[in-house]
Amino acid sequence: MNENKDRSIFRKNIGRALLNKQNDPFLEFWDIDLTTRKAKDKYLNLIDFAYQQVIEKQVSEYIRENFSFTVFEVTSKAKRIEVESKLISTLSWCDECKQSDGWLGNSSPKEKIVKSGLWLVNELYKTPFEAKDIESLASLAIC
User: Fold this and answer.
1) 8: left (phi over 0), alpha (psi -120 to 50) or beta
2) Rounded CA separation 15/104 (Å)
3) Tens-place pLDDT, residues 92-102
4) 35 and 7 in contact (C-beta within 8 Å)?
5) What is the pTM of this model?
6) In this structure, are residues 5 and 56 in contact, taking their beta carbons and an 8 Å threshold?
7) What is the pLDDT of residue 1?
8) Distance (Å, rounded) from C-alpha 24 to C-alpha 90?
């Protein structure tokens, strides 16, 4: 698994919740995007990169222990974007789909994550799948 918060908003959001739950001041540094060499050079003396790796490992452990995944083969990029948006929207509109009281996301500093019960803030409450679309999507599941 590629442990890089700056290449995955999913990982970044889990890390935010872990740090926020512990009132860890490193959250301020976790939020900094270090994908460019310029950003890395700018913050080199401020960020404890060894500690950042500790948090990255905690994020990976949390994912391994708490998630399972299903893969859908969608060959068109436009269709993948549509499927992702509709999946997120469908779940965000679902009245029966609620997070548990112990869900780590309840500790997120992002209000949209806490309220939606999802690890995302984009595509919430937009156009959901219709029932016929869900059946079609299920036929694409690989695992």
Assistant:
1) beta
2) 10
3) 999 999 999 99
4) yes
5) 0.89
6) yes
7) 57
8) 33
Helix (H, G, I), strand (E, B) or coil at 101: coil
Give 22-69 pLDDT, tens digit per residue: 999 999 999 999 999 999 999 999 999 999 999 999 999 999 999 999
122 CB-near residues (< 8 Å, 6+ apart) = 88
Distances (CA, A) of 90 to 11, 93, 105, 118: 22, 5, 19, 11
Assigned token pair, 93: 């509109």
pLDDT of residue 137: 81
- Burial pattern 45-63, b for ≥16 Cβ within 10 A else e, equals eebeeeebeebbebbeebb
Residue type, 99: Q
Hey, what are 85's tokens?
């948006």
Q: How is 76-87 classified by DSSP, letter by letter?
A: -HHHHHHHHHHH
Under 8 Å between Cβ of 52 and 67? no
pLDDT > 70? residue 143: no
